[in-house]
Amino acid sequence: MALIERLARENRSWGYERIRGELKRLGHRVSGSTVRRILKRAGLGPAPRRDDDRWRDFIRAHAASTLACDFFAVDTVTLRRLYVFFVVEVGTRFVRVLGVTANPDGAWVAQQARNLLADLGDRVNAFRFLIRDRDAKFTRVFDEVLVGNDTQVIKIPPRSPRANAYAERWVRTARSECTDRMLIFGERHLRTVLGEYAAHFNWHRPHRSLDLRAPTDEPNVIPLRVGQIQRHDVLGGLIGEYRRVG
Description:
The chain has about 250 residues and is an alpha/beta fold. The chain has 9 helices and 7 strands; from the N terminus they run αααααβββαβαβααββ.
């Protein structure tokens, strides 16, 4: 059973009979109905459906050169709705909060794209793709700013938020760990809160997809097990960071 699932996952274009043929060459004789039953139980559909995962394969192959951007809304204590615009470096999960505003019109969003290219500095040419949804706030000018940097803008299909999963995942994390647990008083307050949270996210918070490293951690550095452990409060104690000192 494990071998059938492995063949299906590693070869997404293979149908039931192709898998049967490979199994036969490996000394296993099974029926097509058995292959189908095992894959259905594992949540794997027939080959055409598995082949839809080409998007995932594309992201995996180009993660280091891909950005993903999106908005999310935060309501203040006065019931004023603010919009947060951010971008995620898919390969490292490094997040940049580009701006906070109550009126994210096309001109404002395009200016944030210019600011992003400036912030990236020498690394600006490393990013070949930017993923975005089809929100009307992303105008032709926004796309032209990126295209002028030879960055291809990729629009996800309509009503397909999972296609922008890396950005959506950060929204979920930022809400559950930060904005849903605080009272936000205004635009300046939200900008300050998200700046502090993004610093924690980028420099300290462990990520399962990065083998429990933070986005800025060096993968080959082994922390020393000496020194007293102290807690550092983030966002007034809402989040704790632990460090060795001394």
